[in-house]
Amino acid sequence: RAKEKGRNDFQIFNSDMKSVSINRLRLENELRRALVNEEFVLYYQPQVDIGSGRIVGVEALIRWNHPDKGMVMPNHFIPLAEESGLIVPIGEWVLRAACKQNKTWQSEGYAPIPISVNLSMRQFFQHNLKGKIRHVLEQTELDPQYLELEITESMTMDVDHAIQSLLELKELGVNVSIDDFGTGYSSLYYLKKFPIDKLKIDRSFVRDIMVDPNDAAIVATIIAMTHHLNLKVIAEGVETEDQLKFLYQNRCNEVQGYWFSPPVDRLELEHMLRYGISVAAASRE
Ligand code: C2E
Ligand code: MG
Ligand code: MG
Ligand code: MG
Predict the structure, then answer these.
(1) Distance (Å, rounded) from C-alpha 103 to C-alpha 241?
(2) How far apart are CA 263 and CA 260, in angstroms?
(3) Which residue of 45, 67, 154, 258 is most buried, as measured by CB atoms within 10 A?
(4) What three-state secondary structure class fits 20?
(5) Distance (Å, whole) CA 58 – CA 283
(6) pTM (2 decimals)?
(7) DSSP β-bridge partners for residue 275
(8) Residue 100 — very low, low, confident or very high, per pLDDT cuts 50/70/90?
């Protein structure tokens, strides 16, 4: 009986493994097709100056407009894209599309603001990243000061590589921020050595600032530290007015989150660029 059961388990395990790898292969092929057929789209989430309520930046976030499945979120395909290496051409598409869109907004007369683009691990370790980004900036004629690249702490674990790459990016004149700050490896010693411009406080800390005194202390401390290090700071995932007030009182510069707006398509973002975000005014009374 034990033998039988063992064999069954083995078979189940086997067929599971098979279907997992078939699904992966299918998804990988679909991602390749998506690149060719231009099924990816960018959504944009405003970054808001906490004092004035003005939009001072936007983060570009990829979506996959799948012919059958509809809008697919990045968490469903970015990890596999990263593993398979497809993230490199996908990331290049994102970079070019974001720079092009930002240049178009400037040509149309919108007040110039930086656009943030998430870099993947593979992109950050790519040979001649600086040259590739310079090429995109030249092609799209976007002034480098209006491009911000987001990296995560895990990409800075090879400290020498990180410093070298970041220096090269700074030579281009682009801005660099550390995304999801606080969730990964972070050595305060190296933080001051990295030529970065901004920390993005991870959503997980912001979520509980009103209920968890530890998270409140961590967020207040990160903000104070950025002021001492002369870095900008933005809080991610701001969803409530109370969170906003806490961040304001603790001198956070910028905020991003559903309280202001989720990521939206180009037309909705343009509407906000023109008329402002209505909730922002109400929340500052
Ligand atoms: P991220 O870079 O940390 O982006 C912020 C994510 O938080 C976005 O999810 C956004 O919709 C979500 N968010 C913003 N405000 C709030 C809020 O108030 N509450 C909650 N619950 N969530 C909020 P999204 O668009 O699904 O992206 C998820 C992740 O996928 C991104 O996290 C980023 O790591 C990755 N990603 C997105 N676009 C790209 C891309 O073009 N390239 C690469 N390499 N990664 C990307
Ligand atoms: Mg990001
Ligand atoms: Mg983030
Ligand atoms: Mg995040």
Answers:
(1) 33
(2) 10
(3) 45
(4) helix
(5) 20
(6) 0.92
(7) none
(8) very high
Asked whether 56 and 48 are in contact (CB, 8 A), the reply is yes
Q: How far is the CA of 246 from the centre of ligand 2 (A)?
A: 22
How many Å apart are CA 59 and CA 42, to the nearest integer? 10
Q: Ligand 1, residues 76, 78, 96, 234: which to mutate, most atoms within 8 A of Cβ?
A: 78
C-alpha span between 31 and 40 (Å, rounded): 9
Cα-based angle 155, 159, 161 (whole degrees, multiple of 5): 75
Q: CA 154, 118, 248: angle at the middle one, nearest 5?
A: 90
Dist. CA 153–CA 201, nearest whole Å: 12
Distance CA 131, CA 169 (A): 9
- DSSP letter at 108 equals T
Distance of alpha carbon 16 from the chain centroid: 33
Token readout for 20 is 């997992």
**pLDDT tens-digit profile of 71-84?**
999 999 999 999 99
ipTM above 0.85, yes or no: yes
Nearest CA to ligand 1 atom 15: 257
- Cβ proximity of 239 and 255 under 8 Å: no
